[in-house]
Design goal:
By secondary structure, the protein is an alpha/beta fold. The chain has one domain: Alpha-Beta Barrel (TIM Barrel). It contains twelve helices and twelve strands. The chain has a twelve-stranded mixed sheet with strand order 7-8-9-6-5-4-3-2-1-10-11-12. Helix 2 links the parallel strand 2 and strand 3. It is globular and about 60 Å long. The relative contact order is 0.16. The structure holds S-adenosylmethionine and iron/sulfur cluster. S-adenosylmethionine binds next to strand 3, strand 5 and helix 12.
Length: about 325
């Protein structure tokens, strides 16, 4: 295994081995919790990383100890040069994976197999087509659901991400878990998080504790099995005895997992974010284009990482709109 070199170790001793790269700021859905209805101000195309630049920056991170890269967005699959990006990144000694809304994923099954991508995270917030349309502002439930079944049939490891919101889909927790009875997928319930323009309100969020209460009301205690979480896992994993799949909760709001954080994020316009919640960014792409070394900027950005949620270490701070509105919309960070 490659030795971690100090530039990716922060002042709390956390080693960063996982890089999430956003490929695009655009999307073929319009999820209400991710982007404002009026859309977001997009970076000019020339400000976005080309596939060569993505490869150059990714390779540098891999040389310094990154072992896992997740591609995200916006919707990564709508980038026209996605096959070549996958080909280039697959040549690096990393686990390569993706988070996608799966609307057009059926066109990429063979490409994924060719480049060794075996695990995918797919977003699906409701099992009800009308509610899916309400939250994504697009009528694509059937395609997404069919594509999830296709991925499973083709042998991919599939994790389904569902952002829970009160009065919207918290009544579907049990339905989602029932999906895992015959389908070997992991459903991950995500606490609704605040970002610029997503009208976040703590009252809309369904917490880890509330999810587990719902599970305990619906299933006998002895059938709820707590699974071992993987190292650096952001989710608390469970399964219902004898069900093929599992479920988990990602509790960034009520139970942050910052102690073991190993993640860094690169935005589509080449800025490094040392935390999902951080309002500061470091411009790697401009330096790279000027032919200047980017390692010193990376090192400085990693060293400056806060202990907890980009400095919003209490729920009181997280609730303050003036703090989280300094951050980008999720669609421009890359979740
Ligand atoms: N378009 C792809 C997708 O939806 O899977 C990838 C990008 S999307 C920004 C990545 C993940 O971020 C999705 O699973 C989405 O549900 C999650 N996400 C977006 N906004 C969020 C929010 N406000 N709170 C929690 N999760 C959020
Ligand atoms: Fe698009 Fe994903 Fe954001 Fe939904 S969550 S708008 S699918 S980027």
């Amino acid at each position: 295994m490659k030795k971690q070199t100090p530039i990716l170790t922060d002042s709390f001793g956390r080693e960063h081995t996982y890089l999430r790269i956003s490929l695009i700021e655009r999307c073929n859905l319009r999820c209400t919790y991710c982007m404002p209805e009026e859309g977001v101000q997009l970076s000019p195309r020339s400000h976005l990383m080309t596939y060569e630049e993505i490869y150059t920056i990714a390779k540098l991170f891999v040389d310094h100890g990154v072992t896992k890269i997740r591609l995200t967005g916006g919707e990564p699959l709508i980038r026209k040069d996605i096959p070549i990006i996958l080909e280039k990144l697959a040549s690096l000694p990393v686990e390569l994976t993706m988070t996608t809304n799966a609307v057009i994923i059926d066109q990429f099954v063979e490409v994924f197999k060719q480049y060794g991508i075996s695990s995918l995270n797919v977003s699906l917030d409701s099992l009800d087509p009308a509610k899916f349309k309400e939250v994504t502002r697009r009528d694509e439930f059937e395609r997404v659901y069919r594509n999830i079944l296709l991925l499973v049939k083709e042998g991919f490891i599939v994790k389904i991400n569902a952002v829970l919101m009160k009065g919207f889909n918290e009544n579907e927790i049990v339905d989602f878990i029932e999906l895992t009875k015959d389908l070997p997928v992991s459903v991950r319930f995500i606490e609704f998080m605040p970002f610029d323009g997503n009208k976040w309100d703590m009252k809309k969020m369904v917490s880890y504790a509330e999810v587990m209460q719902e599970v305990e009301n619906a299933f006998p205690a002895e059938s709820i099995v707590r699974l071992q979480d993987a190292p650096n896992d952001t989710s608390k994993n469970y399964k219902i005895q004898s069900y093929q799949g599992s479920f988990a909760v990602i509790s960034s709001v009520t139970n942050p997992f910052c102690d073991s954080c190993n993640r860094l994020r690169l935005t589509a316009n080449g800025r490094l974010k040392n935390c999902l919640f951080s309002s500061s960014e470091s411009d790697l792409l401009s330096k790279l284009r000027k032919g200047e070394p980017i390692e010193p900027i990376i090192q400085k950005a990693v060293a400056a990482k806060f202990a907890v949620r980009g400095g919003m270490d209490t729920l009181e701070k997280l609730k303050r709109p003036d703090l989280h509105s300094q951050n980008r919309s999720m669609i421009r960070i890359g979740g």
